[in-house]
Amino acid sequence: MKVVIMGCGRVGAQLATLLDADGHLVTVLDIDAYSFRRLPPDFNGTALLGNGTEEESLTKASIEEADAFVAVTQGDNRNIMAAQIAKHIFNVPRVVCRIYDPLRQEIYDTLGIEAFSPTTILAQMLKEKLVS
Questions:
Q1: Under CATH, to which class is 2-131 assigned?
Q2: Cβ atoms within 10 Å, residue 82
Q3: How is the chain split into domains, by residue range?
Q4: Mean pLDDT, residues 111-125 taken together
Q5: Which of 30, 37, 89, 105 has the greatest number of beta carbons closer than 10 A?
Q6: Which residues of 30-68 are buried (b: 16+ CB within 10 A; e: fewer)?
Q7: pLDDT digits (tens, 9 = 90+) for 41-78
Q8: Edge-to-edge, what's the strand order for the sheet holding 2-6?
Q9: Which helix (H) or strand (E) holds 23?
Q10: Is 107 helix (H, G, I), strand (E, B) or coil?
Q11: Spatial CA neighbour of 110 closest among 68, 80, 89, 71
């Protein structure tokens, strides 16, 4: 599977590492070259400096060949914008993005974007630990 990941923070780098180890073709896109330090030395994918909300950067990342696109930057607005571009302009079959504000979940659902909120996930996990 060919995957483009926007954001090389802790989550993006970890996901890239896991997918790469499983033999997938991974391209990680980030606006800060220093972020790529999080990738292991044996990373076989591509680390590309660029903005995932810009079509030119996505084209350089070969998004038109991607089977999946994941947006995991620190910004909800950037993530949803890039996810919409990947889904509606480049027709990437599987698009997932992270959102911090769970109140936005319904909006993204109506846009057809698969989104998850670590806030909601962690709160549910904590609740399960507390009441079980």
A1: alpha beta
A2: 28
A3: 2-131
A4: 89
A5: 30
A6: bbeeebbebbeeebebebbebbbbeeebbeebebeebeb
A7: 999 999 999 999 999 999 999 999 999 999 999 999 99
A8: 46-49, 25-30, 2-6, 68-71, 94-98, 114-116
A9: none
A10: helix
A11: 80
Query: Does the pLDDT at position 108 exceed 90?
Result: no
pLDDT value of residue 112: 82
124: left (phi over 0), alpha (psi -120 to 50) or beta: alpha
Q: In the 3-class helix/strand/coil scheme, how is 41-96 assigned residue by residue?
A: CCCCCEEEECCCCCHHHHHHCCHHHCCEEEECCCCHHHHHHHHHHHHHHCCCCEEE
Measure the CA–CA gap between 18 and 25, rounded to whole angstroms. Answer: 11
Tell whether the model's pLDDT for residue 106 goes beyond 90.
no
Percentage of residues in the chain having pLDDT higher than 70: 100
**Residue for token pair 């659902």:** 109
Read off the pTM.
0.93
